[in-house]
Amino acid sequence: MAEILVLIDHAEGEVKKVSFELLTLARSLGEASAVWIGPGYEAVADKIAEYGPAKVYVAADSELTEYVVAPKVEVLQQLAAGAGAVLVAATGEGKEIAGRLAVRLDSGVLTDVVGVTPDLVAEHSVFGGSVIAHAKVVKGTPVIAVRPNAIALEAAPGSPAVEQVSVALSDAAKGAKITERVVQEKGERPDLTEASIVVSGGRGVGGAENFKVIEGLADTLGAAVGASRAATDAGWYPHQFQVGQTGKTVSPQLYVAAGISGAIQHRAGMQTSKTIVAVNKDPEAPIFELVDFGVVGDLFQVVPQLTEEITKRK
Ligand SMILES: Cc1cc2nc3c(=O)[nH]c(=O)nc-3n(C[C@H](O)[C@H](O)[C@H](O)COP(=O)(O)OP(=O)(O)OC[C@H]3O[C@@H](n4cnc5c(N)ncnc54)[C@H](O)[C@@H]3O)c2cc1C
After folding, report:
1. Buried b / exposed e across 55-64, counting CB within 10 Å, b at 16+?
2. All domains of the chain, ordered by start, with CATH?
3. What is the pLDDT of residues 55-74, one digit of tens each?
């Protein structure tokens, strides 16, 4: 069985959920091997083992995380000889790694992938999600960047073999050094891209103050809060919570859109959500083409009632 390498995305001692999704996918394609770069593997070894890699390559040298993406590319390049494919998260960093790695391996890269068949045909989402394309790398070891939340998690606990890896970094890989890392303050709510429920507000919310209504429902459901670009551009909610083509991609079990029209660029970031509920006072709003459950009404009446009803039933 071909070895499928999965680059584990982690920060501040926490493994990103997308890494477990990639391990789940890798197991369906061949023998999954996780690649951990940087210190701290021991603290999360059990969590990674839950998702069934046969092997974990650990490149623990802290120097590897002192520079931007190039060292990660060199580690993967060293391991990729003979691998069936390399999977990375389709995040900003992941896509940069994927592109550079494919050049080094003289192979092909596919990005924004939302699924891969066992014969390595990738389904990827293009033009803001309005077109699904199938593509296959036909030269060398495929490098595939998979979107967070595109793959349903499936645990398969195991005891992977651990192999320590050392890499002599080239001078080129040391070209850009990270001088400081600032950890963004995290609130009580789950991370937007990892949450199983997201409640988002749009221009219909009408102002920063009114986002309390959205937050109220989100907190009752234990959900993350999202926003349309209209709302973030207006300064009503921080940009880091923007959902869509130029924001975050989410794929929760439940997505609630309140006062959002459903523009294609917004849909690109949430249309793979399992259940979509919209509240909009315009029955013709395009978001209703997408929903499992739609409420035509004023969000300031509907959302507080919904929050109250859920609170009562808890
Ligand atoms: C290159 C590019 C990239 C973009 N990227 C993104 C992106 O990442 N994410 C994104 O969201 N957008 C993005 N956009 C913008 C996108 O095209 C839309 O302009 C934006 O999504 C609209 O946001 P909205 O739905 O909140 O506002 P609107 O389209 O103005 O819709 C507001 C909705 O609220 C409803 N409403 C008003 N009052 C109420 C009320 N009281 N109760 C209930 N409903 C009410 C209205 O009926 C309306 O449907 C991008 C655009 C471009 C060109």
Report:
1. ebbbbbbeeb
2. 3-174 (3.40.50.620), 197-313 (3.40.50.1220)
3. 999 999 999 999 999 999 99
